[in-house]
Each structure stands twice: as C-alpha cells, then as structure tokens.
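User: My collaborator and I are trying to settle a disagreement about how two of our proteins should look. Neither of us wants to argue from intuition anymore, so we agreed to look at predicted structures for both before our next call. Could you fold the first one, then the second, and keep them clearly separated?

Assistant: That sounds like a sensible way to settle it. I'll keep them separate. The first protein:
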Amino acid sequence: MNGNMAEIHIDYDENILLNQRLIKKKEKYHTLETGMFIGDRIETFSKVKMFDDKMEITLPDSFGVMPDNYARVKYPSSFRPHIILTNVKLTANFGFSLFSQKIEDEETDGMAVYLKNILKRSNPAIQFYSQKTIKTLKCTKVVYDFRTQALDEAIYNIHFLAAINSRVMLGIFNCLYRDTDEWYEMVQQIIGSVKDISMDWRK
C-alpha cells in the first residue's frame, strides 16, 4: 500500500514539474520574433512575400506547400486557395488567394459578411463565433472564425480579408477543433503581420 502511494506521489511530482517547464517555455517563446512553443516544439517564423511581392506575411518555417493530391481532396477545385501551406502532420493549414475584384479597406467588413452568407448557405450547420477588425499601419484586416464538421472531426477555421494592391485577399487557417488552443494565438499574430507592400515607398 505504501509503495503504491509513493509511486503515485512520484508520478504526481513529475507531472507538476513537466507542467511548470511547459508554462516556462510558453512564457519564453510567445511571439513571432522569439518563436512560439506549439504542441511539443518551438516554432520559428520568417517573413514571406506573396503575390508578386505585393503582400508580406510572417509564417512558420516548418510549414510547406500542401501536396496536390491532398489539396484536391481537402479543397474542392472551385474553392481551392491559390497558395496552400500545411504542417508536417497535415493537421493545420494556411491558404491564400488574391482575387481580381477591386476593394478598399473600408469595404472589407461588407465583403466578410457576404462571404459568411455564402458559407452559411452552402453549410447550414456551420457555427460562427466572432468578427473583428484589426487595423495596422500598412493593412486593415477583417477576421472571422467558425466551426465546421468533417467526417470524423470538428474543424476550427479562421478567415481573414484584406485589401492588397486594392484587390481582395482572402486568407484562411484551419486545424482540428481539439487543437484550437495550441494554434490560436500564433494565427492571431500571423494575421497581424500581413502588410500591403504593393506601394511601399519606404522599403
């Protein structure tokens, strides 16, 4: 009896130690500049230019281009983002599209409402959460998030809109719903890093 209690006590102490170490790592690595502790690893980030150097964004170094065969299954052709990046496990994904439609910063809110209505019509079971506007020096972003259901997993989604070179840029992120807490803060910071550099005379 005493031996079993000692084992339980040791296991309990080890769990406390592991949790303390995890908390310290999350406190130390918590920005795109320092790196972020995601899951069981420290994720590093780099600035990337997209769409013929019209947009700049900071993205995880470990994400790579999603294989075509997987992209065709995950995203129907009519809705497939122009650029799709994924993690090693293929469980967290970014997508980016730049459309020909002209738009100004102040019109992105209305565009977000329009896209949400399309999503709701195509998937009445969708569960929307919030919509917010993030204003930064070189870009205004409108962000909304929602939950969808795949065959055997709930999926957490974030969409963000911006006017890049006066055109509609739609960015998306999705992950397994059970992993939302791991990725949420990272995605918020990445969205904040989006810049329209199409007319950046200060470079």
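The second protein, kept apart from the first:
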Amino acid sequence: MAKRISRINFVFMSIIVAIGIFLSVCSFKIPFYVNDYASFAGAINLSYDIGEGQTAVFEVKPTSSEVSTLTDEQLIDTVEFVRNVLSMFGASYSQVGLEGENMIRAEIVESSTSESLMNALSDRQEIIIRGEETEEATKYDISAQRIKRCSVSYQQTSSTSSTYSFGVLIEFDDLGKSQYKELTEYVADNGNTVYFYSVDGEQLGSLTEITRAVSTGYTFLPQESIQNETDASMFAVNVMMGSKNVKLDIKENSVSSAYLGYNSLTYVVISLVVAFVIIAIFMIVRYRDLGLLAMFTSLINIVLYLFLLQALPIVTLSISGVIGCVVGFALTVYCHTIVFEKIRSEYAKGKKIPLSFKLGFKNSTLSVVDVSVVVVIASVILYAVGFDILKSFAIPLFIGGILGMFSTLVLTRVFTKWYLPLNSTKASHLSLKKEFANED
C-alpha cells in the first residue's frame, strides 16, 4: 500500500512539474480573451543589453537667469532625481549618470512610453497652489519647491461631485504640509476652492468643496483633459520636474540597439541546458536515485525561478541577472551535495538507509541554512549599495538563496520520504557503501 501511494505521489508531482514546464516556456492563445499567454520566460522584463533601450542625453541648466553654473552637488542630486523619476514612472531598469560637465545620459528598457517619458523630463511644469482665483501672488501661495513626490491618481474632483478625473496626487514636504494646512484652513472659510496655476499665470485646474483644513500633506490636481493613465503619468513627471531648481534640455532621444542582443540570450539558454545535462549526469552517476530526486527537485526549482522572475515587478533580466540565476541554481546543486554526502557518511558508519536519510538531513540542515543565508545577505548588500548591473545580479541571487534552501530542505526531503517505501534496502541504487562493519 505504501509503495502504491509513493508511486501515485510521484506521478501526480510529475504531472504538476510537466504543466509547470509547459507554462514556463510555451505561449498560446487564450480562448475568449484578447491577450495571448506569453509563458513565464516570455513575460520576464529584459534589459537593454539583451533587448532594445531608449537613450536620452540632457543638458542640465539652472532655472534662474541669475545663476550661470551648477554645483557638483546639484548635478549629483539631479542625477538621483532623474533615476527616481524613471523608476517611479515605469522604467524598472535604468542607468543614469553624468556625462561631461553638465550633461546627463539616461538609458532605460524600451517600452511603449519610453520616448514620451524622456521627453516629459525636459518639459517641466512649475506650479503654484493658491486659495484665490487670481494670477497675482497671495499670502498663502505654495511653491512647487514644496512638492516631495507625485503619482498618478483617478478620483473625484470634489467631495460631492460624481465626476472622476485623472490627475496628479501631490505629496508635500514637511514645510509644504504645514503650508497646505494653513491654505485649506483659509479656503474653507473663503470660497472652498484650491487653485493650481503655472508660473506663467495659466490656471491648470482646481479642487473644490474644501470645507476644512487638510493636514494629510496631500492634494489632488485634477486634469479633465487627460483621458488615460499614460498621459497622466507624463503630466506627473512634468510637475515633478517643476519642483526642481534645474531644467533639462533634451539633446538626444533615440532607441539604442542591444549591447548583446536576443541571440546572446539564446546562446546563454543553450549553454544553461548543456550545463544542466552535465550536472544531471554527474549527480546521477555519483548518487544514482538520489541524483534523480535532486534533478526532479531542480526542475521544480527552475519553474519557480521563472515564475518569480516574471512576477516580481522589480526584476528586469540582464546578462548579469542571468549570471545571478546560474549562481543561484549552482547553490541548489551544492546544497544537495551537502545533504547527500552526509547521507553517504551516515550509511558508511553502518546506519540503515532510512536512518541514514533522516540523520543526513538533520546533520546537514545547519550547513545548508548557513550557506543560503550568507548568499541571501550578500545579495541584499549588493542590491542596497550596488549600481544597476549589480542590482540585476543581486535579485536572482536572492531568489536562488531562498529557493536553494527551500528545494533542498523541504522538497527533496519530502521526495526521499516518498522514495523510501520503494527502496529502503538496496544501497547500490543509491550509490551507498559501508566503509566498515557496524559494531552493533
């Protein structure tokens, strides 16, 4: 009965793995649905060293005619600001850096909005928030410099209106938060409307039905003329740029060819398949049935890897990311060898196969956890302090550290328990040998 249950378990798991592999690499049309299924591998965001990228070069200029040059601190701050804006509005993988004395080069993964996003950085919209419908300055005016962050939002244009509009949700810094509270306190008693103006005097929008002071530090700038989220995102970038005391004059905005190209990814995949076959041969020759179990676990590991790479929004796969995947997979294989060598050692001391399995996992758990935790910590440090290429390497490495520990200590342990009813006495099927007689 136990053998039958084990066989059923393995057959059922094999079906699950086969479905996982199919979903990982095969694309197909979905009935009664507009979009096709792209597969896990096909849905992974690719970096511009594999696919195409959008490259833009900006000249950084001061907004005030009284200032002729910018300090190094301002330039570095602008680079960081541009990097954050690109990340915030859809560029999951970017490289931004200084080029020459006052030029910034930005590269992002090519998408449908890449060109527009780069252009939006050069089209600043400096706004003034006031409590009266006038082009003249007032006591409660809030300048664009008090804006800390912007995001796209779709909400009511007033608390009583049934009209919704795309617009920009504005977050103030601490001083701006205090100023907006004072402004809305004034507005609540004088007209109930907050107005948004450009520095040129053009009214950009208004927010009505303000009946009390707002202390949250947020406000909403509605734009009824904007009909979609993409245009709202570009306008939000304009407003963000208007909060800086610099302007970006775009000198170049073009699609850049891949450094390595899709063919290189194909070659990498072929190399990985060959490496997997070589590793499988080694594991099976050395550990026999245990090696087969390890490779079965590795297939599940690969499916989970591909799923997480396409599911996590922070992942954009570059060649350095592929290397991270390879290292992560190698970690899984290494963790299995730690466990299997412990099992061989226990059997060599005279233990029976079931007890050797149990003690092998027990005595190797700490070693596997130590190795995996070191890899996870290293990947976190690389992501925190590294530049974009290192971050692309760190994320798959982090996933590999977690999956390596999970695969070895959970999946393979379960599979060995299923295996024991099928073979608990034939050591030759597991490449186990006794080195000396059991004294017991």
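Some points you might bring to the call about the second protein. Residues 341 and 360 are 8 Å apart (CA to CA). The chain is about 50% helix and 20% strand.
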